[in-house]
């Protein structure tokens, strides 16, 4: 039997102290972003989404009420919402890849978003689209300098962040389509994509016009990061759950189309029947049909030993695999 229960947290005194230290060590940018989410996406606020179902190309207006936001978050804003019309579940997850919120780069010193940047962004973006300014942004269809460039202007940062978050959104949407047969079990159900308008018409470009997102199944379930052995589950149950987690990753690997590359306990939810549901596919590697299997895989991904190692982290070496 695999000794996998050690992957689950143990809420010892040292763990609480470490968690408190990590919380108190959050960067100013992260705190600012959380405050921004609380302001823009406050509980009971209503949003009018442009919703396109997963099995259709026809969009529709969908009003939703925000129940709460989930924290901590990384790149995307994750909200629990209640649809106000239509044949939908009473509660769903609204995931928004909002360039204004969350992680805006790998450098902790990255500038947080501020409303004052929007007029400057709009002006410069309009000049790029008209050809009055050089387009050095790959995400806008331009050509970036061969050796890269350091973006020093706030409006330039906004375009870069938009490009990265839009890429993650497209990847995750595509991943849910490719893994359709696993929806509702190994992964949550995917209902469709959304656009949250940012400004009134006339439209100019997606950078300034809307926030892309998606509607997903809401699971009232903890992540494995929050499950304690000896409190929430027994050691025997933890071993069984661990086997189910590996089985879930095998199901994804067997479809031979998506490599889930953000493998961590926080991205595995535990359903009420103690089966896992894997989330967060924005940084996945996707297989295109024309590519040969042996050429597209990320080294180590899809390997059960590698998955164990990444879930267990530094504790992996102490376990007898």
UniProtKB/TrEMBL annotation:
Gene3D superfamilies: Transferase(Phosphotransferase) domain 1 (1.10.510.10). GO terms for molecular function: ATP binding; protein kinase activity. It comes from Armillaria borealis. It comes from the Eukaryota. InterPro entries: Kinase-like_dom_sf (IPR011009), Prot_kinase_dom (IPR000719). SUPFAM superfamilies: Protein kinase-like (PK-like). Residues 122-321 form the Protein kinase domain. This is Protein kinase domain-containing protein.
């Amino acid at each position: 039997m695999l000794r996998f229960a050690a992957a689950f947290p143990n809420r010892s005194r040292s763990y609480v102290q470490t968690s408190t230290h990590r919380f108190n060590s959050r960067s100013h940018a992260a705190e600012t972003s959380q405050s921004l989410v609380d302001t823009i996406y406050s509980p009971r606020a209503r949003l009018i989404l442009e919703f396109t179902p997963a099995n259709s190309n026809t969009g529709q207006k969908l009003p939703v009420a925000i129940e709460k936001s989930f924290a901590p978050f990384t790149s995307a804003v994750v909200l629990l919402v209640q649809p106000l019309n239509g044949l939908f579940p009473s509660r769903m997850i609204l995931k928004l890849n909002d360039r204004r919120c969350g992680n805006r780069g790998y450098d902790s010193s990255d500038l947080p978003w501020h409303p004052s940047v929007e007029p400057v962004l709009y002006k410069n973006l309009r000049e790029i689209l008209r050809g009055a300014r050089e387009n050095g942004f790959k995400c806008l269809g331009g050509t970036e300098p061969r050796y890269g460039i350091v973006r020093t202007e706030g409006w330039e940062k906004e375009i870069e962040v938009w490009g990265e978050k839009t890429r993650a959104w497209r990847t995750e949407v595509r991943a849910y389509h490719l893994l359709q047969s696993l929806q509702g079990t190994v992964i949550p159900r995917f209902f469709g994509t959304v656009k949250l308008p940012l400004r009134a018409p006339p439209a100019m470009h997606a950078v300034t016009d809307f926030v892309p997102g998606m509607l997903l199944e809401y699971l009232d379930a903890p992540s494995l990061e929050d499950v304690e052995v000896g409190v929430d589950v027994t050691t025997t149950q933890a071993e069984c759950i661990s086997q189910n987690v590996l089985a879930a990753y095998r199901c994804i690997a067997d479809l031979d189309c998506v490599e889930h590359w953000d493998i961590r306990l926080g991205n595995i939810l535990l359903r009420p029947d103690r089966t896992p549901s894997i989330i967060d596919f924005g940084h996945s590697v996707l297989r295109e049909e024309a590519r040969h299997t042996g050429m597209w895989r990320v080294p180590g991904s899809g390997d059960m030993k590698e998955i164990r190692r990444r879930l267990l982290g530094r504790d992996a070496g102490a376990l007898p695999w």
